[in-house]
UniProtKB/TrEMBL annotation:
Keyword Isomerase tagged: yes
Organism expressing this protein natively: Pedobacter cryoconitis
Protein name per the record: Sugar phosphate isomerase/epimerase
Alphabetized InterPro entries for the sequence: Xyl_isomerase-like_sf
GO molecular function terms listed in the Swiss-Prot or TrEMBL record: isomerase activity
Key words of the record: Isomerase
Amino acid sequence: MHITESNRGMPGEGNVRWDELFEALAKINYDGALVLENFSSSIDGMAERVNLWHPSKHNAQDLAEGSLAFIKQKALAYGL
């Protein structure tokens, strides 16, 4: 399943209702992959290539690590 935050940044900092999403995935016994898409403007040229409207609050490394931690925590909390 392809997932992303509403601003394509750090999960949990936008408008996605993550608990509702993970609750629904648990309810259907989802056991497939979760593929996260987000972008950091700290990478030269990234903002222009993916049409980011605002600079990212996080550099690429922090965004990757924080996103993975967030998604893992939600998956564990909902038994996925």
